[in-house]
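request received
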Amino acid sequence: MSSIVKKLSMVAIGTMVGVSMASASSELEKVMKERGLTQQDLLAAAKTYTPSGGRDKYIVFSSGGQSGQIMVYGVPSMRILKYIGVFTPEPWQGWGYDDDTKKVLAQGKIRGKQITWGDTHHPAISETDGKYDGKWLVINDKANPRIAVIDLADFVTKQIVVNPVFKSDHGGAFFTPNSEYILEACQYGAPLDNNYHPMEEYKETYRGGVTVWKFDHKHGKILPEKSFTIEMPPYMQDLSDAGKEASYGWGFTNSFNSEMYTGGIEKGLPPFEAGCSRNDTDYLHVYNWKKLAKLAENPKNVKIINGHKVVPIDVAVKNNALFLVPEPKSPHGVDVSPDGKYIVVCGKLDTHATVYSWDKIKKAIDHKDFVGKDPYGIPIIDMKKAAHCQAELGLGPLHNQYGSKWKTDGEIYTSLYVDSQVVKWNYLTCKVEDRVNVNYNIGHLCGMEGKTEDPQGEYIIALNKLAIDRFNNIGPLHPQNHQLIDIRGKKMQLLYDMPIPLGEPHQAVAIRASKLHPHVRYKMGTNPFTGKIHKGKTLAGQEKIVRKGNHVYVYGTVVRSHINPEHVTVNLGDTVTFYLTNLERAEDETHGFTVDQYNVHASLEPGKTVALTFKADREGVFPYYCTEFCSALHLEMMGYLLVKDPSKKYVSAQKLKMAKMSPEQLKAEYDKIVATNAATDKVIQSVVKFLKENHYEKYPVVKQLVEDALDQYGKIPEQKKKADEYFKKGDLEKAILFENMIWQYMVKTADVGIRARDLLIRKVATPMSEAAKRGEVAFNEGGCGGCHVIGKVSSGPDLTGVLQRHENGEKWVAEFIKNPEHKYNDPYIQSMINYFNLRMPNQGMSDEEIKDIIEYFKWVDENANLF
Ligand code: RUQ
Ligand code: CUA
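response:
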């Protein structure tokens, strides 16, 4: 047996399912053979596989590219957890289909125009002391220069701001180390105003720049009135990074068109790609955002363009706040080291990465040691004097991430687009250490907190632009390919391919899951977009329909499993607003809401209130319903919007004569439901008794479930009163309906109550031995649970006390599991076969498994009083 198989079967498989080692490893070898897996594959699988119910150590936020959204997934499992609606409508979350989310999307209008797509590029997580604090996430839209703020308390977009002067934006969003500001560099040079300027005046009237957005870290809000833009030459600014520690207060942005080439392929001129890469060097822009922010407070230092403060180049230069350092040919990524002492710039069209020393740059600035000025008067620092070293990495170096041993070993990883590789090297010595092939053409790479002051190492994700032959053919448009790489060993190991079916995901950031603390529900009646109580908040019993002129307001509630109200009648031409509050408090009890044909949709997580406004512009009958499968009675969670034309006279239909139930039949039905309710109540009471006797209130998770159950139960007396009133009046039809409602509440109570009881059993039972735990797994996975329910007679006998039923019980049961056929003639077994009309089948259990199952039965017996 191969060594890895041996190791795996011992460590993982052997203990995991309680299968004997020999059978597990032969099973494993069989699977390997069938699927053509190597030992390496198995090891990779063991490193990424996350068992059902397991959690990931890291959470990744990846740009969703042209979808304008953000994708959330876990590492190392690479399981996608969510898409967050950001710049574009996202139907599941009702993002862009209810009033409040429409308002957030409308913040992204540019010059009055609603834009329904986005080219999201660079997500960034807010920082405190240069480390991720897990509070806010921001991302830029390159196509339509905008930045969005996402609240990590609920993973919902709260704000979109439009850049007032840029016409594209690529090098954002990057937080400064205490999230004081967000840097957003423009990409394509363009006039900062909104007027026409001929291309021939590119150098005179087109500009680039970096916008420095003021961020209210506490409230997660970009403050446009306190923000400003640093005017820069039209060099096509690209990626940026904020300095930290040693270089705190400074920003770094590179560029790729110091030639200021303007293209013109249709005029017979060489295209942009030729003209933009003529020079051997472009410029790294070095600027003091801290000083510039102070300067921008004085109106004398700024010009106002489109209502926004712009610090002109000459003001920045005069105040020693803007410098240039040459960098090799059309560079791309710029990444500041965790201590802020080095700035690594990747060549893109050059095989090198250049490591700049902040010390040296600072010295040159302090001593005014410049080699000249650019055409706009910005001082240029000598590249040789600023560089620490250069590393020859390969073709097309793009981006960098730091590893956990950055301090001692200068650990850094760089993506090579042309070579399709990730290179591990040392930025202190510029020595290459390892490289791994990826598939194919990697853009960014994502380390675990790999750009903070606290890189975690462990993994790198390669964000590959092409997948080519990696997945099943699904037509000419292929998914992108995110590949997980293990960087814990000396050699990097490729672990996993994840197809990304959502736009081109440019960049991703990863944070330890332990740093995120999202809530599971909203405070009752919250409008998530203001964080305040929604004006439409409605509690049970407060539901109403109010007409104000032509506007009809529905104050409604949703809770398992009804929408209140269920009938809404309006006039054609009315404006209708549905305010809906989800009264649930239970985790994950989300309801949805839509009205047939009206293109509105809302997602109502527990506690949330939403508003949906539309014009009732067509006559007819429109069912509305809950769109989340929230309970067994989800399909019944519905109502009708009836739109009538007030100018029409409707002839009423002739009423059909229907056969009616006789009074005796009605009485019989009434008695039946009353009896059912009494029986159900008994079950509930026994569960309640059990919960109380075992002090459920000591266990918060159980307590929450019990409260939820009692909530449902508490609604019964009111219904009972109505049922009895109708019964007294002799209206049995209505009495039966209310008794049925009581039954619904009872079922919901029992449902949650039994969940609570099962949880509580686990909490108060004697601890399970490892063998008993394995036994329980074997019991369930071996199919025993199909016929036997512990504590209950179902399609097979209850097994509580089974070891006491026979002399030498343990041996007897073991033999019976191993070889049931031999006991079919045993008189006791005979009687069981007759009673259940079933024979105990041979499930092919191994001796190990049987031993464990016996241990499990012992545990059941010890806790028999609980079942
Ligand atoms: S940039 S693939 Cu658009 Cu982030 Cu380098
Ligand atoms: Cu609520 Cu389905």
